[in-house]
Design brief:
single chain, 184 residues, alpha+beta, four-stranded antiparallel beta sheet, two-stranded antiparallel sheet, 23% helix
Length: 184
């Protein structure tokens, strides 16, 4: 596809976006398949954007973004007005400068599904430092991973007796951020 765009001299004015839906666990964390889990293996998606007119070849951005950001990005690149009902942020500032701090480095997570007749609701937030999620059923259940110290997401510090007090303030701040996102 890229070679053909080059042959037709369309590469400079064609935006190519490659992505997918969430991941699929193959035994990680003792899981197989998909489900109401916020592990990176199940929610991280690839995102590749090619637009030579705007983006330097080979550039990388380590910021946290969301697929919900694609529609506003496409609107801006196409010169279209973003609908006020549209969620997400245009990624154009990051495409121009991957080190830009114009956009927040956090994104809202949500999962709504029916499983065996039960409603499963998960709301959370992922940033470069933390991943927080609240499972909204059966009295609520909090999950907090300190990603800078636990990139493999093996220790839920929200439930470890020796960590609960230490991370109580972080949990409270992230709960408030999730509520702010939900109200947007």
């Amino acid at each position: 596809l890229m070679a053909r765009l080059d042959e037709l001299n369309l590469h400079e004015k064609t935006v190519v976006i490659v992505t997918s839906d969430g991941g699929f666990a193959l035994g990680e964390h003792g899981l197989y398949g998909r489900g109401p889990f916020v592990y990176d293996i199940m929610i991280r998606c690839p995102l590749v954007v090619r637009y030579p007119k705007l983006i330097r070849s080979g550039g990388r951005c380590a910021r946290t973004v969301s697929l919900v950001d694609l529609a506003p990005t496409i609107c801006e690149l196409a010169g279209l007005q973003q609908s006020p009902m549209m969620h997400g942020h245009s990624l154009v500032p990051l495409l121009k400068n991957p080190a830009s701090n114009v956009l927040p480095d956090e994104r809202f997570l949500e999962y709504d599904a029916q499983d065996s007749g039960r409603s499963i609701l998960v709301r959370g937030l992922v940033s470069s430092q933390y991943k927080y999620a609240r499972y909204l059923r059966d009295g609520n259940y909090d999950v907090l991973y300190h990603l800078a110290r636990d990139a493999e997401e093996m220790n839920n510090v929200a439930k470890k007796p020796d960590s609960v007090r230490h991370y109580a303030g972080v949990v409270k701040v992230l709960q408030n951020r999730v509520e702010q996102f939900r109200k947007m």
